[in-house]
Here is the input.
Amino acid sequence: MAIFRSAPGDSSAFKLLLLLTIMYGLMSFLAYSVIHMKFIKPLGVDAPLDRFSEGRAIEHLRVLSKDIDGRHEGRPGLKQAAGYIKGQLELLKDRANSNFRIEVEESAVNGSFNMRFLGHSISLAYRAHTNVLMRISSVGSSESDASVLVNAHFDSTLGSPGAGDCGSCVASMLELARLIIDSGWIPPRPIIFLFNGAEELFMLGSHGFVTTHKWRDTVGAFINIEASGSGGPDVVCQSGPGSWPSLVYAQSAVYPMAQSSAEDVFGIIPGDTDYRILAQDYSNIPGLDIIFLLGGYYYHTSYDTLERLLPGSIQARGDNLFGVVKAFAFNSMLRNATERQYLASTTEGPLSERAIFFDYLTWFMVYYPRRVAVVLHILPVVIFLVLPIILRLADFGVSSCCATLFDFLKGMLLHFIAIILAIIVPVIFAVSRLLLSSHAMNWFAHPYLAFMMFVPGSVVGLLIPRYIWRHFHLSQDISIQKMSSEVLANEARFWGAFGLYALLTLVYLLAGLSGGGVTFFVSASLLVAWICTRLFCSHERSLRLAVVYTLPLLPCLTYLVHFGGILLQFVIEKMGMVGSIPPPLGYYMQDVIVGAMVGVVTGLCLGPLLPVVSSWLARTAVMQLLLHVSVLALAVSSIFFPYNVDAPKRVVMQHTVLTTGSTQILDSSYEFSVVDSNSLPFLFKHAREAAEQLQIGSGYSFETSRQRWLALFPVSFLFSRSFKFPARNDDILKQYKAFPHLSTVEQEISATGTRKIHLELNLGSLKEVWVTALNITGPLSSWSFADNKLPAPESIDGGPPSYICRLSGASHEKWTFWLEANGSEPLRVEVAALDQHLMEPARHLKRLFPDWVDVVAYTSFLSSYSF
Here is the structure.
C-alpha cells in the first residue's frame, strides 16, 4: 500500500520543498561558520607586537586556569591570580616608553548594600576583596581627565577553573594593555583597566570600585567584558545610558556583534553582570556589556577549561576592544562624573535615548537612534493602512477600500494563527514524546535532534491555516476588481503577513523596547519582494514567481537564520541550568521551552516566504512527509542519552553539618539537588556507583526545605527537591577544631523598649570559606549592614518574613555587627557558612559519579541562635 497518494501539483511542491531545504541548509552552514568564528584567524604568540594576539592571551589564560588551582574566594588561588595580574602589569609599566604615565595598584574593597537578585531581596556585606588596577595615560594628563574603564573579573565560581568565565576576559585585557603600550599609541584620555576579584559573589568588586576608589568619578565610559560560555559571538547585550556607547561601538568594532533586542530580555535570564553596578544601580556611567554567548554547556562547571575555548573568539574580541577603546578615548562625549552631571539637562536629545542596532553576520552593523526609529517603525503600519487606497485607485470607493483592508486583516489573522501553530505543534510533539520516554532532554547533548524533531512539525503548523482555509473568503467584489479570486486571496495573504510584522514593529516601539529592528527589516524586505514580483511576474502563479519573490528576501532570510541559530543554541545550552520545578510539570518544562523556541525561530525564518510558498506546500503529501520525518526523529531520539562530557548534567552536592556551640555536631548528611528536568531518581539510576555508596534503596528521603540550602540563597530557588542521605561525623571532628559560632557581645535596651544586640561571628577553623549567609526572623527593625537599611523581607518555605544577608571576605577575622529589635519577641538568627573544603568521604563520593555529571560539592555548616 502506498504511503503517499500522488495528486496534481505534488511534483512541483516536492521540487520547491527540496529547493527550500537546500537554500536553508546553505544559509545554516553560513550561519554556523559565522557563529563558530570560522572566518576569524587567531594570531599566534609570534604575531607582530602592534597586533592583538589570541596566542599571547592564551598564555595568560593557561596560567590563570591551569597553573593556578582555583580562583575562588576563600582559596589561595585567588590571591595568586591577583599577584600574577599585578606582576604582568608591573612588567608592562617597566617597559613603557617615557611618553606614557603608568599607574598600577592593588586595592582591598569593603562595603555593604542591598539588591534584588533572581527576583529575591538580599543584603551583601563584604571586606578585603582584591581589585587590581592599571591606569595608562599620557605624561601630560591630569587626575581629573575623563577616562575609559575596561572591566572584567578574575574570580571564578564554585568548582570551576573559570577559563571562559572569566579568565578569557582577564587574558584579553592583559593582551590589550600590552598592545596599547607596544603599539606606541598614546591615549588622548586615560585608560583604566579594572581587574576585579569578586564578581561571582554578586558584583562586589565593581561595587567597591564605583563607591570608594579615587578614580571612580573620572570614568566617562566603560566596557564590561563577560562570558556566559566558552566563546562564539562576543555580543553587546546591554548598552547605555543613552545611545552614545552603542554608536561608538557601531563605528569602531572590527567584527561588530551586537543586538539591541538582547536588552529587552536580559532581565529574564538568570544572572547579572557588573554592567548593572556601573551603569544602573550605583552609577550612571555610559557603557557596553559585551558577553561571550555560546559554550554555555561549560559555564560555571568544572569543564570550563582552556581546551573548551572556541578558537578565534578571543582574537575577534581583542580586535574589537582595541578599536572601541580608541574610539571612546577620542570621542568628545567622554566626560567625567562632574561634567556629566552639569550637562545632564542638555543631553535629553539624541544621545540620551536608546538606539536600535544589530550586526549583520559580523560583517557590518545597522544602527539608528530612537528618533529615527519613531519614523521608520511607524512607516510599515502607515503603508499597510494606506495601501488599500493606492491599490484600488482605479476603482476607488470607500466600500472597496474597506473591503480590501478587511481582507488584509483576515490575511494578518491567518498569518498570526500560522505562527502560533508553528509553536504549538512542536510543543505537542515534545509532550507526546515525554509521555512515552524514560527521560527528558534527549536533544541536550545533541542539538541537531531538536531541529530534526521540531522543525518539520513547526513547518506543518505554519501550513495548517492554508491547508484548512484553502479558499480565502473574500470581502471584495471580484467583478468590480476585475481580478481572479486567487489573485486577490494571495494579495490579502501577502499584505496580511506584511501587516503582522508592521504591527509587531509598532508594538516594540510603543513599548519602549529595542527589538523592533528585526521585524522592521522583515517588513522592509517584504516590500522589496512585492515590488520585484509586480515588476517581473505580475499575477502569474508559478515556481518562477516563488524564485523572483525569494531572491530579494535572501539577505533578510540569511540574517534570520543567523539570528535564530544563535538564539536556539543559546537556549539549548542554558536548559541545563535554568532550574527545576516540582514534578510532574517539571519533567516537561525544558522540552516544552525548546520545542516552543524552535517553533518561534521556524516561524521567524520561514514566515516571510509563507504567503507565496504555502500555496505549493500546503498539500497532503508534503504535510504527511514532514510529519513522518518528525515522528521518525522523535522515535530515533529515544536512543540518545541526554548528557555527555561536552554537555554535562549539573548536580549540587552539599555536605550539611548541623552544629551547636563551637564544637558539637547535631547532625550530618549529604544532600543533592539538580537544576533541570531529569530529576534525582534519574541521576542515581545512571550513576550506579554513587547510588551503591549511598545505599540508595533505603537511606534517603525527599527534602523540600530550602532552609538547608541557605548558603546558596537565592540560587537555591532554582532547586525544587533534594535527596538527603546520612553521613558520618567522625571525620568532621578530626578536620575541624571549631565550628562557626555566633555570640552576644553586648545588649542595649532603650527607654522605648528597642533592643540593640551587638553580635560577634567567629567562623571557627573553616578552611576555604566562600560565603556565610545569615537568615534573621523576628521583630528586626534595623541593623548595621547596608547603611542600616533592611532589604525587602523574604519568605523561605512559607516561613515568617526573613532578612537575608551574605557575608564574604577575610574569613579568618571575626564579623561584628548589631541587630535592632522593636519588640520583646526574640530574634532568631540562622547561620550557614559555605566551606569549599571537602572531607575525604565526600571527595570519594564525588569521584564515584560518571564523567557526564558535573558535581559542585562543598560543606555547609548550619547553626541556629535566638536573642
The first strand starts at residue 100 and ends at 117. Residues 17 and 344 are 57 Å apart (CA to CA).
